[in-house]
Structures are given as C-alpha cells and as structure tokens.
Here is the input.
Amino acid sequence: MTFQRIAVLGAGSWGTALAQAALRAGRDVVLWSRDAKAAQAMVATRLNPLLPDVTIDKRIAITSSLTDALKADAILAAVPAQSLRSLASLIAPSLSENIPVISCAKGIERGTHKFMTQVIAEAAPRATPAILSGPSFAADVARGLPTAVTLSAADETIAADLAKALGSATFRPYHTTDLRGVEIGGAAKNVLAIATGIVSGRGLGASAAAALVTRGFAELVRFGRKLGARPETLTGLSGLGDLVLTCSSPQSRNYSLGLSLGKGQPDQSHKLAEGAFTASVLSEMAKAHGVDMPITAAVAAVLDGGMSVDDAIASLMTRPFRAE
Here is the structure.
C-alpha cells in the first residue's frame, strides 16, 4: 500500500507541519481547516499565523471542504485529543472501509478514559486506527529539520507502509504494533513536562529537574507495563525520547504552562497544553489500576486547584524513603 493521497485534518501548527512533511515524502497532500476564512487566508498568503516563519508549499491543497479532503488514501487527524471524537464522528459516514485514520494527538479522553485509537475505533468503526507520536516540535518538522517519530497500527504491514509513505530524508517514522505503549508515552510525558516546568519556574535547580524527569519516567514505565505496553516502546522515541524533548524546552506548551505555574504567574497556554486535560485522567486511571504515580497525582492536584505548588513539592519530598 503506497498511500499516495494524504489528508491532514486540522490546520493548526502541527497539522500544517505534518502536511509539509507528507509533501516532502512525495505524497499528494490536502490540508483541511474547519474554518473557511482561515483556509482562504492560508491559500492567499501561504502562511499559518501559528507558524509565522514557514511558507506553506504551493503544492499543498488547502480547503475547508471535508468532501474534498476525504478523497484520500490515509488521514492524519491533527486535532487536540479532546476534539478527536467529534472529528472522527464527523468524518465517519464518508470514510471508505479500512482507511487508516492516524491520530496525531497525545492525550487520553476525559470522562471515558479512552486512548486515541480507541476513540477512533468507536466513533469511526470503518477506519483502521493508528497513532503517530514522538519527539517533534511543529516548527522543526515544518522547516524540514531532522526528526524521528513512532507510527503504530495493529497490523504491522499497515504500520510499515504508512511509515514508508510519510518518511523522507528529514522525517523518519519508526513503526510498531504497540499502540498502547505509544499512546501512554505521549500522554504521560505531557503531564511530566508540566511538573518539570514547575520545578524550573520555582528555581529549584537542575538537580531537582533531573530527579523529577527520572522518577517521572519510572511512573510512565510502571503505568505502561500495567496496561501491557512493551518495554522497548516505553524506552523508545514515543516514550523516553518525547519525555526528554518536552521536559527540556519552553517550545513545549506543557513545559511553558508548568513554568508559569512555578513562577506564580497567570497563564493561558493551558488551553493548548494537552497535559492540562490529561493529568486528572491519568491520575484517575493510575489509581484504578493500582499504579503508584505521585508526580502525576501532584500535577493533577495543582491543576485542579486542590493543592498549591509549594504543597505539591513538599508532598513529593516528604514521601517515605524507599528502595529505587
């Protein structure tokens, strides 16, 4: 399967970047925006205000017509995790049988505790669910800087063919059938990035940040193993790799949100930070599965207003001593 025609649904920074990447891979690409005026503006200027330094290649078709966009061999769903169900439901009646719908979001659905491929399977049952995740900032991908990610589907042949269809000299997808491992890595690292940002914002030092990332990764691994994820996925690009990137740069919306919380400053980036929506869900799931995730629980408590930043830090530092 060559998957020559690629539709990217969602014309935010990540969707625009992925459209550029798919074009570099030699695909025929259409970028869909729900907002007709935004689509018209991008057609006229070949610019996305969210990626001001990137010119959108003229070979990328930009449209607000879902009918036109869905004339594709594979679909990249580049919308936030909490919006995926509504998008999948919207496109479900028009999908051909077994067309891959690849979630490009990193989160868990609130209320249902469903992972992204589960949401696709429920809302668009004719689709073949897949997930794309890994250490990747939209600006880097859009500019064609070297990036490696993980692409997962239940069928190994489909996963491999999708990786080949999207891969280029600057965008390298590794494929796997471990859907859950990829999804857990992407969701959990966002929550941990908020925690790391808090540490930086509070000025607690590099030693504290290193300790938090290390212990946070231990939480991610415990949760992943409990839900059947493969160890090599958790230590791979979509797990450890994405954690390292997201916890080390203000380019991350999640890290930036934590930074503002640590400084005690009001911040609006929580509206775009996936971790802000995932923290409470992940904490609830950890409790339900009997997995100890104190950092995740502390972040959820801070975001929900149940605990101050200083109290959260104190709760983590005064936990009983234990073996590593």
Observations:
- The CA atoms of residues 75 and 244 lie 28 Å apart.
- The first helix runs from residue 13 to 24.
- The mean pLDDT is 94.
